[in-house]
């Protein structure tokens, strides 16, 4: 018990006596100090006293679909910094292939009495996936914000990049360089953002395009892009920068030069894309604005302000670098 008091006191920046008063429900402690002690208790993994378990601390869950794609750590950095400025402590849950399922992460966050949850990816973005585990959040009236497009009937607000504008920018760029045969390397068939991108390209190009699908790994992108190149594609639009890098690898393994033979456009403008060979042309997501908007929406819900379950769309920006060039003659 003494060790626990000392650890919580150090984490919260208060005395052990103050921690003891909070845990025993005694008066004489400000609400801000009390919240800091409870947050420290949660972060260190200690159970709250029974009489305090029904109270939410100032913890906010942040669920990431993976950490291999640099865009997600970048978003996490923005969200955690913005949460800290608002007096909240983030509790990070990063999923891995074959690891803890999203359902278990939600249960864990609820057990920690979080004040709200920001999802940066998850099964809500897959139309055919199981979504019933989100009902636990709805049943508790938990403030939730989801980043990235997802299914429509969950009832939570979304923050998304405008996929249609992203495709218009990428496709227009490739066409301006003279590319006629353009392909797309997209996510799974039920991946909602990929569906949006494909729908946008269909409006622009009709049936004059090709598509291959992947599971968002670099190796699967290499295989998908290789099939497109063998079908005569000279310009490719990819659903992420990771897929674009896999596509560059495919071109080189087939003896093609990027961009002399094949031009490739990514999506995200994640870290180090200026340092790849060649530097990647990509459609930049406004991650900083999106992350701050997600936190604003979440905090408004936590503080009792009404938030509509709508989708906020942010306009992307085409960043032209060395992976695109004139179509081969």
UniProtKB/TrEMBL annotation:
Q: Which organism is it from?
A: Paractinoplanes tereljensis
Query: Which residues are in the HTH lacI-type domain?
Result: 1-57
**What protein am I looking at?**
LacI family transcriptional regulator
Tell me which Pfam families the record gives. LacI, Peripla_BP_3
User: In this protein, which residues make up the domain named HTH cro/C1-type?
Assistant: 5-48
* Entry keyword Transcription regulation: yes
MF (Gene Ontology): DNA-binding transcription factor activity; transcription cis-regulatory region binding
Q: Which SMART domains match?
A: HTH_LACI (SM00354)
Q: Which PROSITE patterns match?
A: HTH_CROC1 (PS50943), HTH_LACI_1 (PS00356), HTH_LACI_2 (PS50932)
Ordered alphabetically, the record's keywords are: DNA-binding, Transcription, Transcription regulation
Q: Which InterPro entries match?
A: Cro/C1-type_HTH (IPR001387), HTH_LacI (IPR000843), LacI/GalR-like_sensor (IPR046335), Lambda_DNA-bd_dom_sf (IPR010982), Peripla_BP_I (IPR028082)
């Amino acid at each position: 018990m003494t060790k626990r008091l000392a650890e919580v006191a150090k984490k919260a920046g208060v005395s052990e006596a103050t921690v003891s008063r909070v845990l025993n429900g005694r008066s004489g402690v400000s609400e801000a100090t009390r919240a800091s002690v409870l947050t420290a208790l949660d972060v260190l993994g200690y159970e709250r006293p029974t009489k305090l378990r029904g109270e939410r601390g100032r913890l906010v869950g942040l669920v990431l679909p993976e950490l291999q794609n640099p865009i997600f750590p970048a978003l996490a950095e923005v969200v955690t910094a913005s949460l800290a400025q608002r007096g909240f402590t983030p509790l990070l849950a990063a999923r891995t292939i074959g690891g803890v399922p999203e359902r278990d992460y939600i249960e864990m966050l609820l057990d920690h009495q979080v004040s709200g949850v920001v999802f940066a990816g998850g099964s809500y973005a897959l139309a055919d996936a199981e979504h019933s585990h989100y009902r636990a959040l709805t049943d508790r009236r938990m403030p939730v914000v989801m980043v990235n497009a997802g299914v429509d009937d969950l009832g939570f607000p979304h923050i998304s990049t405008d996929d249609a504008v992203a495709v218009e920018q990428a496709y227009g760029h490739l066409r301006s360089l003279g590319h006629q045969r353009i392909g797309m390397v997209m996510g799974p068939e039920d991946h909602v953002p990929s569906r949006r991108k494909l729908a946008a390209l269909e409006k622009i190009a009709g049936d004059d395009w090709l598509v291959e699908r992947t599971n968002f790994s670099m190796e699967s992108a290499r295989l998908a892009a290789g099939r497109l190149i063998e079908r005569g594609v000279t310009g490719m639009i990819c659903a992420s920068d990771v897929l674009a890098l896999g596509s560059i690898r495919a071109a080189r393994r087939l003896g093609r030069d990027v961009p002399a033979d094949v031009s490739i456009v990514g999506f995200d403008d994640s870290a180090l894309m200026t340092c790849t060979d060649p530097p990647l042309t990509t459609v930049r997501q406004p991650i900083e604005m999106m992350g701050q908007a997600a936190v604003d929406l979440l905090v408004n819900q936590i503080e009792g302000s009404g938030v509509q379950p709508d989708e906020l769309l942010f306009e992307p920006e085409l960043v032209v670098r060395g992976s695109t060039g004139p179509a081969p003659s």
